[in-house]
From TrEMBL:
Coiled-coil residue spans: none
Region of interest: Disordered: 71-98
Family to which the UniProt record says this protein belongs: Belongs to the HIPP family.
Domain HMA: 1-67
Bias type Basic and acidic residues, positions: 71-83
Lineage per the UniProt record: Eukaryota, Viridiplantae, Streptophyta, Embryophyta, Tracheophyta
Record protein name field: HMA domain-containing protein
Pfam family membership, one: HMA
GO molecular function annotation: metal ion binding
InterPro entries: HIPP, HMA_dom
Record keywords: Lipoprotein, Metal-binding, Methylation, Prenylation
């Protein structure tokens, strides 16, 4: 997974639409975002930055700002309720049916 940040000289909305369509047509692109104010295009996926630039240069001027590994999202793992410590005093000294009553325990019938 790579994260590629490109600077595009986008002057018209029509060029932006064509650039987005071109990026969507590339294989390996998992996600992308366009920042109009900073004129940046961010791509994430298994892509070759040189091929992306070659495709986009047909539409507008392109500069590579950075190419690097994409940060993996941290996966949230909820805690299992079965792994909690049982500190409730009602669980201490409980007998199972198979074991039968123990002679040194109090049994109320």
């Amino acid at each position: 997974m790579k994260k590629v940040v490109l600077k595009l000289e986008i002057n018209k909305n029509k060029i932006k639409k064509k650039a987005m369509k071109t990026v969507l047509g590339l294989s390996g692109v998992e996600s992308f975002s366009v920042d109009i104010k900073e004129k940046r295009l961010t791509l994430i996926g298994n892509i070759d930055a040189v091929k992306v630039v070659a495709k986009l240069r047909k539409l507008c001027d392109v500069e590579i700002i950075s190419v690097g590994p994409a940060k993996e999202e941290e996966k949230y793992e909820p805690k299992d309720s079965t792994k909690q410590n049982r500190t409730n005093p009602m669980f201490y000294g409980a007998d199972s049916i198979e074991e039968g009553p123990r002679p040194n325990r109090c049994v109320i019938m």
